Amino acid sequence: MNEQEILQQKLASLRIEHRDLDDVIARIGEQAPYDQLQLQRLKKRKLALKDQITRLESRLLPDIIA
């Protein structure tokens, strides 16, 4: 397995976790009352995942300067 394939697998895993967090955050937001601290932590984790996804995508698809 080469580095490209490893990065693609990691990217797929991060995307799944990001999507799962979306679902959890939506469900927590629908419940009343909800734990604001837990919700903030989940949103922070989701943002960190998005940053990791963006970094991996840029490594896999480097910008081509024309």
TrEMBL record:
List, alphabetically, the InterPro entries matched.
DUF465 (IPR007420), DUF465_sf (IPR038444)
- Superkingdom of the source species: Bacteria
Q: What is this protein called?
A: DUF465 domain-containing protein
